[in-house]
Amino acid sequence: MSVHMLPAAQALARLGEFDTVIDARSESEYAEDRLPGAVNWPSLNDAERHEVGTLYKQVSPFDARKRGAALVAANIARHVAAHVADKPKDWRPLVYCWRGGQRSGSLALVLGQIGFRVHVVEGGYKAFRSVVLAELPGLASRFTWRVVCGPTGSGKTRWLQALAQAGAQVLDLEALASHRSSVLGLIPGQPQPSQKRFDTLIWEHLRALDPARPVYVESESRKVGNVAVPEALIVAMRAADCIRLELSNEERVRLLLEDYAFFTHDRELFCERLGALTALRGRAQVQAWQQAVRAGALEDVVRELLARHYDPGYAASTERNFPRFAQAVQVRPANRSPAAMEAAARELVAADQAAAAGAASSQPTASR
Question: May I ask the CATH architecture of the domain 143-367?
Answer without folding.
Answer: 3-Layer(aba) Sandwich (3.40)
